[in-house]
Amino acid sequence: MVNTRILEERLGWRATEDGEAPTPPSRAIGHQPMLQGRVDSATRGRGRRVGPSRLNRKTEAEEAWATIPVILDDPDRLAARGHAPSIARGSAAAAAMDQLRTQILRVIDDKGLRRIGITSPSRGAGRSFVAAGLAASIARLDAMRVMLIDSDLEYPGLADLLDLDAPGPLEAVLSEQVSPEEQLRRVGGDDHGGLALALNSAPVVQAAERMMMPEAILALRAMIDCVAPDVVIHDLPPLLNDPVAPALLSQLDAVLLVADGKRSTAQDVLECERVLEGQVPLLGVVLNKSEDRDPRRTRGRH
Fold it and tell me: Which Gene3D superfamilies match (predicted)?
């Protein structure tokens, strides 16, 4: 699922034989992907002094988290009830997601990030599957709170993917018709951890313009802040030829790009980098739905 070798070849790297020095890329990459170990340890996400006011907010968030209605008792049941390949513990997809989780959480901790957007150049790359799989993987950790938001506002589909019922339209939260807590449902964990879902039952009309309004932005932030998750994952619409994703970039700390291993091109990835440049850091690129036919992978095997 996460096939970096093919991605490097498509972006201009030449595959090398064992012991051979790597060949420089044929073109410059605008971003430095954070998931390759290039992290600055000057800012740390832990070990900060917590004052009384923050302690009070933390207590309130924990109480709010405990009151979220629980719809499934285990994150592994998400895939079992859905139409996507299994992301349950022990599956091939779960192993890939756990590996991605390790890298993501390391960077989040080192850089003090929290709000991660998962997008793709175009539809059909599997970004919602990666978003759900990564969220479920994080939720399996003890005392880790993660929130997954269906941020594909004009074409919501996360509830259908997971075969769950959304509590209502996200528009009602953005327009402050209902309290943010009413949109949330919890999967697994206990009163201190697990997965909170913010699903959406209906398209948000003129979503790009909507997310330029201060009240909508504040409502979105209130939905997140009311339970203070450790990680927030936004299942975004495609980055290219869609006005909603660029409108949401200001609400993110970093972006993870999902490329279709059979359809996405190097030019697609470069164009996405151009859109992100100067706005939000690129965590890295996940190559989904790819086939690695490198003979070196099976050398010595019969």
Answer: P-loop containing nucleotide triphosphate hydrolases
**Is 87 within a domain?**
yes
232 and 224 Cβ atoms separated by less than 8 Å: yes
Q: Do the domain assignments include residue 137? A: yes
Non-local CB neighbours of 154 within 8 Å, separated by 6+ positions = 203, 204, 207, 237, 244
Q: 300 lies in a domain?
A: no
Nearest to 145 by CA among 52, 235, 58, 47: 58
For residue range 199-210, list pLDDT tens digits in order.
999 999 999 999
Q: How many domains does the structure of the chain reveal?
A: 1
Which residues lie closer than 8 Å to 287 by C-beta, 6 or more apart?
2, 3, 4, 6, 7, 259, 261
Start-to-end CA distance of the chain, whole Å, equals 23
pLDDT in tens, 126-165: 999 999 999 999 999 988 999 999 999 999 999 999 989 9
Helix locations, 4-51, DSSP H:
4-10
φ, ψ (nearest 5 deg) of residue 79:
-70, -35
pTM over 0.85: no
Output phi, psi for 187, to 5 deg.
-125, 120
- 55 occurs within a structural domain: no
R_g over Cα of the chain: 19
CATH of the domain at 259: 3.40.50.300
Query: pLDDT tens digits, residue range 198-244?
Result: 999 999 999 999 999 999 999 999 999 999 999 999 999 999 989 99
Q: Provide the domain limits for residue 233.
A: 4-14+66-156+166-291
Strands of the chain (E only): list them. Answer: 70-72, 115-119, 145-150, 184-187, 194-198, 231-235, 254-260, 282-288
